[in-house]
Design goal:
The complex is a heterodimer of chains A (308) and B (290). Chain A is mainly α and 308 residues long. Helix content of chain A is 79%, strand content 0%. The longest helix of chain A has 31 residues, at 169-199. Classes of the chains: A mainly alpha (308), B mainly alpha (290).
Chain lengths: 308, 290
């Protein structure tokens, strides 16, 4: 088990290094940062001073290592907009993002998994068809369209909820529903197919044939095995929580990381973009790492496969 | 071997192929319409998509008591929504089409390379696949746009990087399997070069799986493009795309919801149609993916 954990940790570290290198290369490819940040007609002395200050006149590999070193201590430079450290700007937005993404995640899991299990156990029933139809809709409806439709109905027509902004519990309801329902539909689809896959296995038939009562077959034989692929999807959803919030936060003017990213991209505030990239990458990697551990815990084959 | 085993099935399968379910026929009909609209955009638009009609600003569509002059209404500058919709459909479909083709070619080529050379090349490709799969593409796309700024060519190229790793994975896996089978070895023994083996023998054998993946990528790129354009970071005005139109229409959602509803329904119906078609194709062409 220990080698398993260590190998996964190494892999996680490597992915983060990859993301940082990606950001570094893309940033350097995009042109001279000095000219990008200062105006084109800035005096040459100012440009030279800027290069000196940011170490841009040093060899590229030296820049790379100092960049990586700074990144590991959370130093991504200062925001070009208001001169504050980029990482602080990002970190203070995290709670707002979690405030809508966590309830949305609970909605996805709490609604999606039971619906998927139910649909699989009652295959081809009305409930199954409805779940499948909803999941196709969840796949194909872009979140901004769903968000705007919800605004149109609940804010404009009925006037029950605010259309955008933040500050009260009411403001969070529409963003949470937007994020949660689409994900719940996808969750239901995956859970259903995982369950159907397991229910078709010989050991389920064997257990039923032995006379084990059906409830026990489902709860003891089918569910634990169907949990393995389902955990992958949950992990993926946890990992992409922040990314998924980009559009929804922008629609509802919710002050989270996603909206910060959009405005930073529009203003080409590169330090902030890099900091967000790192925060999201770390988050994704942590989620994947947890999924890997959960695999090892759920499935003895995985944990023993790496042991020898 | 595999073909011989399935031979008796082919007739009944062909018969099933011809009998289309209602949903799939509707989807095909809609997609046909979209293709006609995309190709005939110039002929079909009643007005130029940038033409202003300041006297008829925010005029409602026919169904909401508007006039025949602007069947889908007009926007805040009096531009005809129908004309803008047609031009936007063409733009969104073009981007999705090019994006899908780039992703499929790039991914398949890398998958072939990995399967052909094995060793270090394969490790490198696998690492790139892992990296691509571990970051949400939306975030990668946003950071590239932040670093490079935006223009249409770069934007289309960027869309082409979406989900290339899916094709690379499929192409590599299936090629490794194909190399084990008799036919690839037989052609190699006959003296065919790698280009001939991969292009003429392996590619046709794995094409159905790749095509099914394309029906997944295409709507994903439409959604990604429209999401980015909606945020104002994709297609830039004066050009217009479906997401772009929804983004602008959002500001008039209380007074003129039709500006946003028309392109929004075009996005949803189109992606839905492709997904239905893709599901159906998957069942028909590739039973292994079911």
């Amino acid at each position: 088990m220990l080698t398993f954990v260590i190998s996964r940790l190494l892999r996680a570290g490597l992915t983060i290094l990859f993301v940082m290198t990606f950001a570094f290369i893309v940033l350097r490819l995009s042109g001279d940062p000095a000219l990008l940040i200062m105006s084109v007609d800035a005096p040459p002395e100012a440009v030279a001073a800027f290069r000196e200050a940011w170490g841009l006149n040093r060899p590229i590999w030296e820049q790379y290592f100092s960049y990586i070193g700074h990144a590991f201590t959370g130093d991504f430079g200062k925001s070009m907009r208001d001169g504050r450290p980029a990482i602080d700007l990002v970190m203070e937005r995290v709670p707002a993002t979690l405030a809508i993404t966590m309830p949305a995640l609970a909605l996805k899991i709490g609604l999606g998994i039971p619906a998927g299990i139910y649909a699989a156990l009652h295959r081809n029933s009305m409930a199954d068809r409805l779940t499948m139809a909803a999941s196709v809709a969840g796949f194909t409806m872009p979140s901004f369209v769903l968000a705007l439709l919800l605004v149109l109905v609940f804010a404009v027509q009925l006037g029950w909820l605010p259309a955008s902004g933040s500050g009260s519990l009411d403001h969070a309801i529409l963003p949470i529903i937007t994020l949660g329902t689409g994900g719940a539909a996808i969750m239901a689809r995956f859970t259903r197919s995982a369950m159907l896959e397991v229910l078709g296995q010989p050991y389920i038939r064997a257990a039923s044939a032995k006379g084990v009562n059906w409830h026990r077959v489902v709860s003891r034989h089918a569910l634990p095995n169907a949990a393995i692929p389902t955990v992958t999807i949950v992990g993926f959803m946890v990992g992409s929580l922040v990314a998924g919030a980009v559009v929804v936060e922008s629609v509802f003017a919710w002050p989270g990381i996603g909206r910060l990213l959009v405005s930073a991209v529009a203003n080409r505030d590169l330090a902030v973009v890099q900091a967000i990239l790192m925060v999201i990458a770390t988050w994704m990697v942590a989620a994947n790492f947890t999924v890997d551990l959960a695999y090892g815990w759920l499935d003895p084959r995985v944990r023993n496969a790496t042991a020898h | 071997m595999a073909i011989a085993e399935h031979a008796p099935e082919t007739i009944s399968r062909r018969r099933r192929f011809l009998k289309l379910p209602v949903g799939v026929s509707l989807a095909l009909g809609w997609l046909g319409l979209m293709i006609v609209v995309a190709f005939g955009a110039e002929l079909l638009t009643p007005y130029s998509f940038t033409a202003l009609d300041l006297k008829a600003r925010l005029s409602p569509p026919l169904l909401m008591g508007g006039s025949l002059a602007h069947p889908l209404g007009t926007d805040e500058l009096g531009r005809d929504v129908l004309s803008r919709l047609i031009v936007s459909i063409r733009m969104s479909l073009l981007i999705a089409l090019f994006g899908t083709i780039i992703a499929a070619s790039l991914g398949t080529a890398l998958g072939f390379l990995a399967a052909h050379f094995r060793g270090k090349v394969e490790q490198l490709v696998l690492m790139a696949i892992d990296f691509q799969a571990s970051m949400p593409f939306m975030i990668i796309a946003l950071s590239v746009l932040a670093f490079f700024g935006n223009n249409l060519v770069l934007f289309i190229a960027l869309m082409g990087f979406h989900s290339w790793e899916r094709y690379a994975r499929i192409a590599r896996g299936l090629t490794l399997a194909a190399n084990e089978q008799g036919y690839a070895a037989a052609v190699r023994q006959l003296g065919a070069g790698p280009g001939r083996i991969y292009g003429l023998h392996i590619l046709p054998n794995i094409a159905s799986t790749l095509i099914v993946s394309m029906t997944l990528t295409f709507p994903e790129i439409i959604l990604l493009e429209s999401g980015l354009s909606f945020l104002g970071l994709g297609v830039q005005p004066p050009l217009t795309s479906l997401g772009n139109m929804v983004g602008y229409g959002r500001e008039y959602i209380t007074r003129a919801p039709w500006i946003m509803l028309a392109p929004a329904s075009a996005i949803v119906v189109t992606t839905l149609s492709i997904s239905l078609l893709g599901d159906w194709l998957r069942d028909r062409l590739d039973p292994t993916l079911r």
